[in-house]
Amino acid sequence: MILGSLSGAFLIRASLLRASLVRAFLVRAYRLFAFWICSFLIYLISGWRAVGVLLAVAAMSAPSIAQQSANAGAASTAMVTFTLDFPESNPEHYSIAVDAAGHARYECSGTMAEDSEQEPYKAEFQVSAGNREKIFDWARQARYFAGKVDSGNGKLAFTGTKVLSYQDGQRSNAARYNYSNLAAVQQLTALFQNMGATLDYGRRLAYYRRYQKLALDEELKRMETQARNNELDEIQGVAPVLQEIVEDTSVINVVRARAKELIEMGKNATGH
Fold first, then answer.
1. How far is CA 164 from the centre of its chain?
2. Given 49, 150, 217, 266, which is the most exposed site by the fewest CB atoms within 10 A?
């Protein structure tokens, strides 16, 4: 009887001990689980706060970035164009457009003989850094051609209808004139006309090399004389045509040597 009572008491105590251990384990597990849940929530809140900060910074920076992009876009699209229409000359029409990066495009319509029809001609080249800076500086001095440019003197001889235009992301101006008293416009006109003379040599030389090689010598002599008299600009603009003459073995050596000399003159003028 006594032994049975003791055995029952022992079993009760063992059960209570097991229950106590299980309860302690569950409490510790619950606390650990709660700790990890709280830590995860804190991480999420901190993360969203960081995201919020980043979004706020991005929102504040957006106008500045947009302004910089707009300024860069305006600078990259800025362009100065010179156009000459003169029915008594050959070519009777040409235009030269130079952008802020120095890329230039020449277009003209001219003839190679008195009885031939007008033919279009195009060439692209890179303007020297010095002339590119001059072009845009003179355009600025001329107020980007916003306003009257022509002298208004009707007694002056007609030397062709000239147009200077300027375009960028903010401006679009064009001024038509025969002659201008503005120093900046005079300098631009002289530079563009010298460039036009150079590029028209390229047109004629390309034709002569293909169809009339015997005419190359006299043409190159005239070009060399004008270059030495500072009447041509941007000779490197016709370097590809000159190089074709240099490499053409069907052209006599003296002509090829003259073309090579002109290439060197163009390199020296641009500092290359």
1. 21
2. 49
CA dist., res. 246 & res. 234, Å (int): 19
Is residue 11's pLDDT more than 60? Answer: no
Report the amino acid identity of residue 78.
A
- Written as six digits, the tokens of 40 are 């995860």
Structure tokens at 105: 């495009």
Tokens 């049975």 — which residue? 4
pLDDT band at 271 (very low <50, low <70, confident <90, very high): low
CB 174 within 8 A of CB 152: no
**Pairing state between β 161-167 and 119-126:** unpaired
Instruction: Kindly give, in sequence order, each residue whose CB lies less than 8 Å from that of residue 72, ignoring residues fewer than 6 positions away.
Output: none
Instruction: Please check whether residue 102 is in contact with residue 132, taking contact to mean a CB–CB distance below 8 angstroms.
Output: yes
* Average pLDDT of the residues in 38-56: 44
Question: Peptide bond preceding 91: is omega within 30 degrees of 0, i.e. cis?
Answer: yes
Task: Report pLDDT digits (tens) over 57-116.
Answer: 344 544 444 455 455 454 558 999 999 999 989 999 999 999 999 999 999 999 998 788
| Pairing verdict, β 119-126 and 103-110 | antiparallel
- Summarised one tens digit per residue, pLDDT across range 127-173 is 999 999 999 999 999 999 999 999 999 999 999 999 999 999 999 99
CA 59 to the chain's CA centroid: 28
DSSP 8-state symbol, 180: B
Quote the DSSP letter at residue 150: B
Rounded to whole angstroms, how far apart are CA atoms 96 and 37? 72
- Which tokens sit at 19? 């229950």
Straight-line distance from the first to the last Cα atom of the chain, in angstroms, rounded to the nearest whole number: 120
